[in-house]
C-alpha cells in the first residue's frame, strides 16, 4: 500500500513537485536524521555538523539539506554519534530527499502499513455541539461510559476543599457524587464492563488508585502510585487507563527524576510490568488509552514538557508507531473504534483545538464550534456517527500593578489571552510574557502607548522570567527552543535577540542582573543538581558556580555584595551567599517562594498566597501590604520596580471549564 510522505511540519503530502532544501529549527533537523534534538545538537558541537543561524544575535537555526548530505557521507555520525547506521539510512524517506512522486512513509523506524489500516480516512465532521453542564464551578476531565449513556467528571463539592468525582446521564438527568476527596487531577476512567470507575486520590506516599463500584458506591484501593510535582502535571502524568480485560491499570511512572516517564501495567496483586521505553533525554510517555477492541495502546510521548506527539503500540509488544509529527502540546485523546484518534492539541501554548489522526499518519483540525478544547471522550453511535464529550475551557491571566503610595490596583495591557511574568523598568515600561500571538513571547507596554509591542518571535514551546537590566536597555529571559531551557537577551529598541547562556545537556533559567549590569545570575543543573551560577553579561569567559547546597532563583541584595536566593521550588527559606561564592547562610525562615518575589532596595517584596508582603532582611521585619480579591487566583510572576514604589503580579481573572457534547459524522 502506498501512502503519502509524512511531513515534519503538520500535514500529510501525497505528491510533491519539488523538494524543500532547507530544514528550520532543531526539531526538523533531528527528524531528518531520525534522532533526538539533543543528539543533533551534540553532532554540531562534537562532529562539526553544518548548522546555520539566522543571525549572530539569534538562537534560531536552520540547515541546508545538500550540506547535511555531504557532511553525513564524510562524518558518518551513525558510527560516531551514538545511533546505528540503519536508523540513518531510514531517514532517506524524509520529504526533503524526495524529488517527486509518492512513497511509503517511515515513522519512528517502522513502515506504516496495512497491519493497522487498509486505506486513508478523511477527517470526521462536527455536525453540532452544545453545553452539557453550565455550573459556576469548573467541570473537567470527562469520560464516557462504554455504552455511551453516562459521563463521569471532576468538579467541586459544596462545603469541601477537595473536589469530587461526579456522574450524570448523558441525556437530561441529575448528577450525583460518585466519590469524594479526590485529586484535582483525578482523571476518572470507566472500566471496560461499565460497572466501575477508577480515579486518583491523594495517599500517604503519593496517589492511590481507587476503584468505585457505580451500583453501590463501594470503594477499594487498587494500588498506589508515587507522588507528583506541579511540573510533572503539565504532562498529565496522573492520567490512567484500564487494560482490555479490566484486571489492570495502565499508568505513567519514572524510576528517578532524571529518567523519562514510562507506561506500566499495575495488577491487583501489586505486580507492575513496563509497556513502553521512551528515549533517554525525553520527558516520557503519558495519557494512555486502549482501543475498544483491546489490540492497540495509544499514548502521548513528550519530548519536552510542552512538545508531544501521539504514538500507537500494538499489544502486547508489537512495533511502535509514531502517528503525529506536530510537536505540539496534547491535552487528551480518545479512540474512534480502532479507526483513528481524536485529540486536543495546539502549537506553542495557544488555545487547543480538536484534531483527527488516522492510523496511517494523516492529521487534520476539525471544523466546527470549539474553544480551548481538552480531554475528549468518544462513544460510537453507529458506523458513521460518534458522540463526543469534551472539556471546554476559557481562561484569562492578566498582569496587575499596585501603587504602594495609593494602594490602588490596576490592570496592565489586558487581553483575552494569557499574560504573566511581568518585569518593570525605571521609566514605567512593563515587559511581560503573552500568548496573544499564539506562542509564549515577550511583549512591551510603554508609557503613553495604547497597545503593547511584541519583542520576540521565537515560536518556542515556553518562554518565561523576563528581567530588565539596570540601565533599562536590555531584557533577560529564558526560553526552551530545544530540549532544554536557555537564557537570552533582547534589546527592545532594536528588537534583536541574542543567546547568552546555553547548555545542550543542562537546564538554564531564572536569570537576574547584577546592580551594575555586568553580570547575570542564573540557575543551572550543569553540575548535576540545580545551583546558582553567574556569567558575564557580554558572554565573555566561563560561567562560575556560586552555591553548592542547591539554588533555584537568586537576586542581588542591596549593596551588591551578596545574593539572596531560594534553594528549590518548595522552599520558603531565604538564603544569602557572597556574589563571588562562599558561605551560604539562612536570612529568613519563612519568606518567598520561587517566581513570586523581587528585590528593591532595601526590601524583599513577595506574594504569599493572596497577600503581598514586604520583608526587611537585615532587621527581620515583615509586613503585609495588600490582600488580593479572594475571587481571583494568582499565577506565576512577580516584580518590584527599583525606582518606583510599584509592584506587579499575574492573576487569573477568568477561569471557566464546562463539559460540552458534540455529534460528529464519520466519512
Question: What topology emerges from the helices and strands here?
Answer:
Blueprint: E1 5-6, E2 12-13, E3 22-24, H1 25-33, H2 37-47, E4 52-53, E5 61-64, H3 65-75, H4 77-80, H5 85-90, E6 106-107, E7 110-111, E8 125-131, E9 140-144, E10 150-155, E11 164-169, E12 175-179, E13 189-190, E14 196-202, E15 206-213, E16 219-226, H6 230-233, E17 241-242, E18 248-253, E19 262-267, E20 272-274, E21 284-290, E22 296-304, E23 307-314, E24 321-322, E25 329-336, E26 340-346, E27 353-358, E28 363-365, E29 373-382, E30 385-403, E31 408-412, E32 419-424, E33 430-434, E34 441-445, E35 453-454, E36 462-468, E37 475-480, E38 486-491, E39 496-501, E40 508-513, E41 519-524, E42 531-536, E43 544-545, E44 553-556, E45 562-566, E46 574-578, E47 585-588, E48 597-600, E49 603-608, E50 611-616, E51 621-627, E52 633-640, E53 646-665
Antiparallel strand pairs: 1-2, 3-5, 4-5, 6-7, 8-53, 9-10, 10-11, 11-12, 13-14, 14-15, 15-16, 17-18, 18-19, 19-20, 21-22, 22-23, 23-24, 25-26, 26-27, 27-28, 29-30, 30-31, 30-53, 32-33, 33-34, 34-35, 36-37, 37-38, 38-39, 40-41, 41-42, 42-43, 44-45, 45-46, 46-47, 48-49, 49-50, 50-51, 52-53
